Amino acid sequence: MALQRICDLATLGDALYGSHANQPLGTDGATITRYTPGDAKNPFSVAFDWNRPGEPTKGGGAGQGFLRVHAIGGRLFVPDTDPPYAGFGIADPGTEGYVFVSDASGAFEPARMPGHRPPASAAVLPRAYHVIDVIRFRGRLYASTGSVPPTERAWRGASPGALHVANDAGNRWTYEVDYPYPWQAGVWRLTYLVRFRDRLYAGIQDFDGREPNDYVVFAPAAGTSVITHDDTLGVRVTSRGGALTLRWYADRGRLWWIAVERDGGVALRVTDDGDTWQTVPLPAAAGSPSDVVRWGPAVVALTEWGLWRVDVDPPVELARVDGRRSPFAVDDAFCAAPLAVFEGALYAGSQRDGSLWRLTPP
Fold first, then answer.
1. Nearest-5° angle of CA 16, CA 21, CA 24?
2. Within a 10 A sphere around the Cβ of 31, how many other Cβ atoms?
3. Which of 50, 28, 170 lies closest to 108, judged by CA?
4. What are the phi and psi torsion angles at 84 (to 5°)?
5. What is the maximum alpha-carbon separation in the chain?
6. How far apart are CA 82 and CA 114, in angstroms?
7. How high is the pLDDT of residue 2?
8. Range 225-229 contact pairs with CB under 8 angstroms and sequence separation of 24 or more
């Protein structure tokens, strides 16, 4: 059940969870696996299966990838990147998305039968075509989406990226703010999210390749929990704009950002203030970076051909990938090999065969 790609890793309790995909937003395949090393007999198990075996495939018979799994408030949150049939009409006859939510032990309710429908514990997001990421910001749960504006109809006209916010019960997330605004003909998606210096950052994907900015910053006034268009700023950092965010990582007053630039290059950048960026000078032989995380005293980045300490100048190689093909190649704009620290060891997820890699401290 591992599928081809591991897109994200998260820890909850005594287990490490991985989100899986084959070709995100392109082909069926979406599972969450659980790795519990304390269970010597069965360390791997399926935490949630959204492959919907036996259901009609027209319109997408299964979810088309889980790109993120997050532990928030003692539960796991998994956005449904591209739901089957554009949704099941639970809350909106046009289109809707879902966020799957576990209990405190990391257990997910299975799909409801008959028909492998979303479990009752799943949150519904009316007007969402795609649900990419989930985050808590200023006490509210937000999801980044590609959506239908409030006064428009699905499958025609403008499709901006949007933020949906959860109600108090957490079972319905409604459209709050969008980008770009005013709406334009075409398709945008807000992608990966991070909090930094009391602002919310969101990656952008512009389906038609016209977007001049690299990401969006939402900066509502202090003490305000609602985000409006007045709080929204598109930011361009790269020379040509339109970068595709692969990862954000906030750590000890610094924000790290990995993005695919319009020319196809992948760069790791870091900022102290959230506005002024410096490029981390990884050598060409390292290959493209895919994730960054703190591991003990160091901030480390996974690249196609190794692991590098990047909070020193110049970066220092800590481990090397051998072989003709790397399991950590950056070859998909939505899913890149993830890193996670679990029980003191560093874990990385493959993009070739769904395998999990471990590096123990020296």
1. 135
2. 22
3. 50
4. -60, 140
5. 58
6. 21
7. 65
8. 225/138, 225/139, 225/140, 226/176, 227/163, 227/165, 227/176, 227/177, 227/200, 228/177, 229/177, 229/178, 229/181
Question: Buried b vs exposed e over 295-329: b needs ≥16 C-beta within 10 Å?
Answer: beeebbbbbbbbbbbbbeeebeebeebeeeebbbb
What φ, ψ does residue 229 adopt, rounded to 5°?
A: -65, -30
Tokens at 247, concatenated: 């990862």
Number of Cβ atoms within 10 Å of the Cβ of 169: 7
Both tokens of 216, joined, read 């969006």
**DSSP-assigned letter for residue 117:** B
| pLDDT of 206 above 60 | yes
| pLDDT tens-digit series, residues 142-197 | 999 999 999 998 988 999 999 999 999 999 999 999 999 999 999 999 999 999 99
Give the closest residue to 307 by CA, choosing from 338, 273, 276.
338
Q: 286 with 292: CB under 8 angstroms?
A: no
Q: Can you tell me whether residue 85 is helix, strand or coil?
A: helix
